[in-house]
Amino acid sequence: MFGLPSEDWTLDVPERYFTLENYDGGVARWCPGCGDFAVLSAVQRICRDAQVPPEKLAMISGIGCSSRFPHYMHAYGFHGLHGRALPVACGVKSRRPDLHVWVATGDGDCCSIGAGHWLHACRYNMDMVVMVFDNHIYGLTKKQTSPTTPLGFGTNTHPDGAFLPPLDVAATTLGFPNVSFVARTFDWNPAHLYQTLLAAYHHRGTSFVHILQRCPTYTADVFDEVRNTPDTTLLLTHPEGVAVDPGVARMYKNHREHDPRDLAAARQLAQIPGQIAIGLLYCNPAAPRYDLHTAVGLGQSRERKLAGLERELDRFAI
Ligand code: SF4
Ligand code: MG
User: Fold this and answer.
1) Which residues line ligand 1 (CB under 6 A)?
2) Element holding 131 (H helix, E strand)
3) Nearest CA to ligand 1 atom 1
4) What is the pTM of this model?
5) Which pLDDT tens digits describe the chain residue by residue (318 residues)?
6) How far is the CA of 187 from the centre of ligand 1 (A)?
7) Which CA distances in Å does 306 have to 118, 138, 175, 295, 315?
8) 271-297 burial string, b = 16+ CB within 10 Å, else e?
9) What is the longest distance spanned by two Cα atoms in the chain?
10) Which of 36, 68, 221, 223 maximizes ligand 1 atoms within 8 Å of its Cβ, making it the mutation to test the pocket?
11) d(CA 22, CA 37)
């Protein structure tokens, strides 16, 4: 931005230039080595690179370790109730369509107590980025089985191992009606994490990002295989998908050209036995958006609203 943009040396300097510090909400208090730090850093970089004014950002969360996210961003924030991040985010987007809404939720928060909202928020397809931090455990409440805890993994609620096979966050989301954007990434690959969240930021609709997230305190070794054996990763590529940095392309030798408009292929790729696909699984920019309807109400005059209400009540007149 501050290079030499034209031959006459004219600098088109915006009125305000935001640095990373402008998005910094204070010292993050996650455990050392927690993957949440990487996600926070990626989101702050995207906001800086896109020069989003902090007053145009709303960070919404439910309950859990990752739901402390709004505290660490200098922006509007709402640290909500357990499982309720998405209805709050939809409410904010309905009444403040000018805000860039980001949601931080976890595998327990989103996929258990918040599961009903998960389905309907995807169906509403309001314009926001939803980040699911999937560490395969309830971290804040100290190692309880979550819907994504691997079968047989010992937890405080199931000391002899989780009984049920886990659900996959991305694969499940791809089964929802009117879903418009589903991607997956790792917190431990900052370049891919950044590009995935950037693609999510640019998509108009609900951009749902499944982030595999390290929790060194309670699920220290669950991602060992995928982290230490790059062959278990399938890197999705496509001109309309997540941009792949050359270093990331070199890191993973298994690549697959995948058209993100192909929902059936996306569903298959989301759950490949022995492999984990990262990148953009599905994107439908034409999916209807509910926020385009809810926001229209803002422009209605009091008289028009009253007339509409009268019309509705008249239908019940006897
Ligand atoms: Fe992160 Fe796990 Fe610590 Fe929570 S318990 S802050 S998820 S490392
Ligand atoms: Mg969790």
Assistant:
1) 30-31, 34, 36, 65, 135, 139, 215-218
2) strand 128-134
3) 34
4) 0.91
5) 444 445 555 656 568 899 999 999 999 999 999 999 999 999 999 999 999 999 999 999 999 999 999 999 999 999 999 999 999 999 999 989 999 999 999 999 999 999 999 999 999 999 999 999 999 999 999 999 999 999 999 999 999 999 999 999 999 999 999 999 999 999 999 999 999 999 999 999 999 999 999 999 999 999 999 999 999 999 999 999 999 999 999 999 999 999 999 999 999 999 999 999 999 999 999 999 999 988 777 667 888 889 999 999 999 988
6) 13
7) 33, 47, 40, 18, 14
8) eeeeebbbbbbbbbeebebbbeebbee
9) 76
10) 36
11) 17
H-assigned helices in the chain: 36-50, 85-95, 107-108, 115-124, 169-173, 190-202, 224-228, 246-251, 263-269, 291-294, 302-314
Given ligand 1 and candidates 27, 31, 155, 212, which is best to mutate, with the most ligand atoms within 8 Å of its CB?
Answer: 31
Which of the listed residues 40, 65, 69, 223 should we mutate to test ligand 1's pocket, taking the one with most ligand atoms within 8 A of CB? 65
- The closest-lying atom of ligand 1 relative to the alpha carbon of residue 35 is 1
In the β-sheet with 233-237, what is the strand arrangement from edge to edge?
76-79, 57-61, 100-106, 128-134, 206-212, 181-186, 276-283, 233-237, 255-257
Rounded distance from Cα 233 to ligand 1 centre (Å): 24
Burial of 91 (0-12, 13-18, 19+ CB in 10 A): middle
- Amino acid, single-letter form, for residue 309: L
Residues 194, 39: Cα–Cα separation, whole Å: 8
Residue of 96, 94, 284, 122 whose CA lies nearest to 105 = 122
Q: Whose CA is nearest to atom 2 of ligand 1?
A: 215
C-beta neighbour count of 161 within 10 angstroms: 13
Contact criterion met (CB below 8 Å) for 99 and 91: no
Cα gap 257→255, rounded to integer Å: 7
